[in-house]
Fold this protein.
Amino acid sequence: MSEKTLFQKIADKELPSDMVYEDDRCVAFRDINPAAPTHVLIVPRKPITRPDLIEEEDEALVGHLFTAARRIAAQEGLTDYRLVMNNGADAGQSVFHIHLHILGGRPMAWPPG
Ligand code: 5GP
């Protein structure tokens, strides 16, 4: 079996995190290096490497990340927030286990850097 990703180890609680939500398909924890007052990462338990490797069989799972985001945003008291999923190193992906960023608590500029 291949080695677990960093985020699998966090999901399995082999590594510590400030977890704010979990269910049978995903976990969510605070980003270690927050880019906004609220910065949470939503991570499927299934270790899909990059967004462009999401398959049709994963569609329900990916949709689930967005409904989890809605719940977490409400829990965090956010009404306006940004959801981001980076695809590949040049787009800013640094952890190769897909994750949805929730960023909120400050006004967001567009376009992003
Ligand atoms: P990416 O750059 O891949 O879109 O996002 C990865 C995010 O994971 C970054 O914002 C980074 O700060 C966060 N991160 C990296 N390692 C850890 C860690 O060990 N714990 C937590 N909580 N966040 C991490």
Remarks:
- The first helix runs from residue 6 to 11.
- Residues 6, 17, 29, 31-33, 41, 86, 92-95 surround guanosine-5'-monophosphate (CB under 6 Å).
- Strands lie at 19-22, 26-30, 38-44, 81-84, 100-104.
